[in-house]
Specification:
- Helix content is 23%, strand content 45%.
- By secondary structure, it is α/β, with parallel strands linked by helices.
- It has a single domain, classed as 2-Layer Sandwich (Transcription Regulator spoIIAA), CATH 3.30.750.
- The chain has a seven-stranded mixed β-sheet, covered by helices on one side.
- α3 links the parallel β6 and β7.
- The longest helix has 9 residues.
- The chain is globular.
Amino acid sequence: MMKFTYLGTQLERKTFKGGSTMFRIDRIYKDTQVELWKISGEIRPSHLKDWAEALKTLPLGSGSRILLDFCEVAYLSQQAAGYLIDHLTTDIFITNCPAPVKNMIYAAGLSSQLLG
């Protein structure tokens, strides 16, 4: 189940709930060149469908770079990380991701998409 709420013009929140855990994606900054999206919570294998839907709603092709900040992610399943890696484009950059996910991104040859 997805809840979608606009909070003003600069903040957009998408909350995905499933079972006893949830994750949230908040757009916390936007200008003409970059959008910063903070991801928080837990993304378990049972949330893969919601995770895929969340990634599909990112505004790709808008001319802005998308920065996904994983600083508040408590758990990211291997399946969710794999889906993210399979759908990385040159417009998406990753920061503050867990070390195992960072290793998966390096192994996939996508280290240019990692920041910090």
